[in-house]
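agent> fetching stored inputs for the coenzyme A docking request
agent> found them:
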Amino acid sequence: MDAYQRAYEDWLTDPEAFWGAAARSVTWTRPPRRILDRDRPPFYRWFPDAELNTSVNALDRHVEAGRGEQTALVYDSPVTGTARRYTFTQLTEEVARAASALASLGVGRGDRVIVYMPMIPEAVVAMLACARLGAVHSVVFGGFAAPELAARIDDARPKAVVAASCGIEPTRLVPYKPMLDEAIDLATHKPVACLVVQREQQRCVLVAGRDHDWEHLVTAAPPHPPVPVAATDPLYILYTSGTTGRPKGIVRDNGGHAVAMAWSMRNVYGIGPGDVMWAASDIGWAVGHSYTVYAPLLAGATTILYEGKPVGTPDAGAFWRVIADHGVNVLFTAPTAIRAIKKEDPGAELVGRYDLSSLRALFLAGERLDPATFDWATDALGLPVIDNWWQTETGWPVASSPFGLERIPLKAGSASVPMPGYDIRVLDAEGAEVPRGTEGALCLRLPLPPGALPTLWEDDDRYVASYLSAFDGYYLTGDGGFLDEDRYVFVLGRTDDVINVAGHRLSAGSMEAVLAAHPAVAECAVVGVADPFKGQVPRGLVVIKSGAEIAPQALEADLVARVRAEIGPVASLRRVDVVAALPKTRSGKILRRVMRELADGRSPAIPSTIEDASVLEAIRPVLVPDSPVSDRGPLSPGG
Ligand code: COA
Ligand code: AMP
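agent> prediction call returned; pasting tokens
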């Protein structure tokens, strides 16, 4: 582990020298003289005196360096039967025009812009156009319903929204614009303008005086020059699920982000100028932000924007077809996507139909990579399959195999080793470090590196309360796990009410709020249950109010429909069981942790304070997974 060990030790010895050197790969309008502002702990700011424009780093500078004719973006859309390429020159021009269009709607530096769009090039253009103006984008995933979008509109208070008339799922059209209209009706804050891409599959009605046609406004707009911003200015807000129903607005700054993206693209993913990176994730998630949009372009690589699924568009060979068609060097997706492919093509026969000689590695993240999926992908591709562990909050891998630096041995069930910038410690409930091999709370020593969240949007207190208050001097990841004797990290799952469904992060608390609002529900709990395909799926448990006259099946159907309408189809809540009671302590607290561990296929310690142990036994059959995600790997070291 020479190159990795050297890099990690360089960082550990002098973090500011390490990140100061990494910052040289970024083009600044005012280069940093100060690397880290430590004046106001626990708030840290990277490159506090520097200035840059992120879109210039992603686009213009590559044109200036003579790579204008190189492909920057490939749009591959099996759901519409189209594929399109944009060179760096074309993408720069399109972004500069879109920035002008947004400016004509009143958007300027520091203003927020919500982007609610499917996987089309205009979505990437909209994000980069905001970056060009110094405006702050907030992309909302299309699988969320109008009330979730409204909550984000009220929190971010955008001046404008960029949307599309519709999205295309394999079996149906998703009417984005009507959902946006409904969200704006629901929200207290009203954006002044909406810029809408009319797709031919389903055009939408534009509201006079508020809505503008993208084609009309952007095509005619003159190019807008880039606006230099402070490195510490926000580039975007990305909302993610917390333990409560209220999403957390993760803030990403401009300078730290650019440095971290450039460093990780080269040293973690091994991608440089002219290479082809494909992160098959929706742009509404962190993976889409970091490794579909920003990092490949910042590195001068080609990125693939794929509007389709791993299976069904048209078959389980779709990923291999895209790799062969576009010469993809690195594929990054979620384990669920591989499980979907494996289910349809268990013998990996479709893999052999395509020329995958360009592919160097498969990276997987977003949820636990079960050893069976790791083994299947390794056998099918004959390449390194690299589990990397991170979160929306960190923006880039906390732990990975440092593929760009060197090949290190991989261990099934482990996301390998900490990346420079991250000092992972495993703590017990009292905040003491546990011995190697013992399970505990995965925590990161402060300060966090460039690229990780500096705070939550307009809520420093919540940032501290959510992440920094459990253990002084540490960031609490919310994941449990252990480090082995070689410092490999094994992430075993969330220790809170966040659940992970098909690589999508959701809040059990927000689903509980929807169930609890039903007039026939006295009490409820939502727990993530291990699922062989999606990793986890939410399972609802409700106690009916005495006197309420409703059949359990009717109540279940009603609750499933309500969660779909209030949170969105992505919640994937399909089963709600009516139970006589929920397990509680004698003081009335619902034993969520115990239910969570039971649902995860573990044998939880039952607290002595339990009010009635027979209640837990009664719900056990509802929660215990029929067939857990293959084996759960080593739940305890060696076990
Ligand atoms: N817009 C609107 N609806 C969407 C959507 C979007 N962008 N994405 C998903 N949905 C809908 C789906 O159509 C589905 O609706 P349905 O209940 O009517 O069938 C529902 O949300 C659940 O979607 P999903 O959990 O994705 O299940 P799926 O069966 O449609 O697809 C996979 C399963 C594995 C193919 C898909 O989840 C996948 O590709 N996952 C990769 C994970 C990923 O990208 N993670 C991001 C971080 S790396
Ligand atoms: P998100 O913020 O959507 O990226 O989700 C982050 C959460 O997904 C983490 O806190 C983990 O619970 C889970 N996760 C992400 N990557 C991995 C991984 N490689 N192994 C295990 N869990 C992961």
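agent> quick read of the result: Residues 240, 285-286, 365-369, 387-392, 415, 477-479, 491, 494, 500, 505 surround adenosine monophosphate (ligand 2) (CB under 6 Å).
agent> awaiting further instructions
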